[in-house]
Amino acid sequence: MKKHQWRANTLPSLVTVGPVTLWLLFFVAVPLIYVGVMSFCSLDQYYNVTFQFTLDNYKRLFDVNYIKIYGQSVLIAFLTTIICILVAYPFSFLIARTKSKKKMILYMLVIIPFWTNSLIRIYGWKTFLGTTGWLNTALQFLHITSEPLELLFHRGTTVLGMVYCLFPFMVLPLYTAIEKLDGSLLEASADLGAKGFSTFFEVILPLTASGIFSGSIMVFIPALGYFFVADILGGGNSDVIGNLIERQFQSGNNWPLGAALSIILILITLLLVKIYQKLGGDMESLGV
Fold this sequence. Notes:
There is one protein chain. Helix 3 (64-97) packs antiparallel against helix 4, helix 11 (227-234) packs across helix 12 and helix 12 packs antiparallel against helix 13 (255-278). This protein has one domain (68-286): MetI-like (MetI-like fold). It is 73% helix and 1% strand. A two-stranded antiparallel sheet has the order 1-2. The longest helix is centred in the N-terminal third of the chain and has 37 residues, at 2-38. By secondary structure, the protein is mainly alpha-helical. The relative contact order is 0.12.
């Protein structure tokens, strides 16, 4: 009887959880373990990976040239995050406070870019900003400039591409946080004589801080690894950590070093998520 009851209770759970567990095991756990093991491997004289334990890959992470790229990565990610907050906050507030059918239109303007591959859209920006692109053509046609401007292959262009790609990741958590605002609190603030700026900084901003922080994590972390944006729009002049990893696995043919860099990026991600959790953030807003 107990055996039959055990089967009745266990089999449904295995059928429900089993496929998900196997999926996570083979497509998340195993690759992470493989990358972790690879980060401690060595290279022979022919650049073949040998499973000989070494810490040299992690020691090389402190190379001066790499440290410069770390700093540049953090700067680009920080600028991208700040610009996304400044642009996305009023847009998210507008969506959350719109009651008509226009709300769905505004929301779809954020979702529609996800329907197209980001790589294709970044190439569109390269064409638009090129010396023979639409922007330079329009500027010369209007006699604003006498010759094409070199708009590509700058750090600012890389930040522009990052903002364009990651903007929706800031809007969605901000929209969720702003929509949860209790309207009675805003009315009470107005009744007590608080003006617009006072209400915003003392009521609205503190209550939506969770959305700002979760959106910042969702923007900052990918900005460290979006190597294709830095390659296409930055032209190698504004590398991020993702560029280092990509080159080690491709042209550098140094998989152990690339794996070590990947592990560091994963640890940074886990650290930021842990800080967010400690501050009382909702993990569901990060998709965790």
